[in-house]
Amino acid sequence: MSASVSAGPRRRLVFICESGTDVRLVTGLKQRFELTLLLRPAFGPRTINWKDEGPEPVRIVEGPAGRVAFAAFAGAWLVRHRAEVEAVLAQNAGVASLAANACRGLTRVPTFMLICSPNIAYFHCRYERGELGLPAYLAGRTLLEAARAGNALLGHRYLVLSDYLGGQVSYGIREKVRVVPLYGVDTSRFQPVSPEEKRRLRVKLGLPEEGFLIFFSSRVAPEKDTESLLDACALLRASGRSFWMLNLSGGHQRLKQLAVERGLGDRTLTRDAVDPVHALPAYYQASDVCAQVSLEEGLGFSPLEALACEVPVVATAVGGLRETIRDGETGLSVPVRAPRALADALARVMDEPERFLALARQGRRMVRERFEASRCFDGFAALVEEELASRR
C-alpha cells in the first residue's frame, strides 16, 4: 500500500474490532499510528496476516468471545489505560462502540466510530435466508437497534464509507458524520495492464487462456445475491454465450454447488480467497468484467478495485453502490434480484468491450479522485489531529 505518512509523532490509536476487519485497513492505520488492536478471540492474530507493511508491529489485546462481555472488557481497558491512549477507533455501531462512547466521559479520549456496513440490514438478510429463527432474529435486532440508538446519542464522531451509511446510522444527527472511505484503494497496486500482460496473467494464475471471464469477487454471504448472478449466467448460456465465471471466497464451495444445480459447473471456477494486497489485483487484471450482485451494500470496494484496474463493472443499484457505479458513466447498474437485466448488462459488455473499457477508464479517474487509499488514511489522521487540537 502506498503511504503518505507524517514526519511528526505517531499518535497512539486503539482500534476496537468487535467482528472481523481487513488487513488493508490495519496496514493503513499502522503506517500512521502507534496501533493497539482490541479484538474478540474469533478475530485474533491467528486470522490476520499483516505481511510486511508499516514501520512498527501491532499490539494485539484479546478480550472475551461474547459480544457483551467483550464490550465490557473494551470499556474497562480504555478506562484503565486512558493515560496511554490518544484516540479510539471503534468498528461499526455495535455494543463495543457503545461501551467506548459511554466511557468517553471518563477517558476524555476522542472516539470515532467507523461504519463499514448497514449491520441491521445485513442481519435481516440472514433472517430472510433462514439462517435465524424468529426469536433469535427479534432478540438480535432489538440489541442492534438499541446499540445504534445509544451510539447516536453518545457518539461524538461517525466515519462512514458512503452517504448511504451516514443516513443509516446518524438518527438525523448529521453533523456527527464524516464520509471517510477507509481503507480506500491503492491504485499503485490495482492498476490496468496491457492485453499481452492480461494473457500472461491468465496462464500464471491457471485461468482459461481464452474466453470472457466474469469475476464475482465478493464473498458468498447472506447479503450477496449469488443466486441472481448464477441465474443470469444460465440465461447467457441458454442464449449461446460462452464465458467463465470466477469466485474467490471462503464460501466458494456453496457457490459451486449452486452453479452445478443450474448446469454451470463446467463454466464456474471457484477458489479460496487470496491475499488482498499482494495477490488479488492480478485476478481483476485477468478478468473481463466484475459483477457485484448484492441485496445490501455499505459501499462495495470490489467494484472500485476493478475500476482501478480499468475492468468494466456491472452492479446492483443498492446502498453505496448507487454512489459509485453510475449507469452509463462508471459502469452498468441493474435492479436488485433481476437476473434478466443482469444477463443483458453482461451481454452488452461482451458485445461492446471498447465502449465499456472507456467507462472503466472514467471509473479509474473517479477512484483516484475519491478513494485513493493514502488520501483516505491521511484524511482520518487529519481528523484525529483536528480533534486533539480542539482539546488543547
TrEMBL record:
Residues 198-365 form the Glycosyl transferase family domain. Keywords: Glycosyltransferase, Transferase. InterPro entries: Glyco_trans_1 (IPR001296). SUPFAM superfamilies: UDP-Glycosyltransferase/glycogen phosphorylase. GO terms for molecular function: glycosyltransferase activity. Coiled coil: none annotated. Gene3D superfamilies: Glycogen Phosphorylase B. PANTHER family: D-INOSITOL 3-PHOSPHATE GLYCOSYLTRANSFERASE, GLYCOSYLTRANSFERASE. This is Glycosyltransferase. It comes from Archangium gephyra.
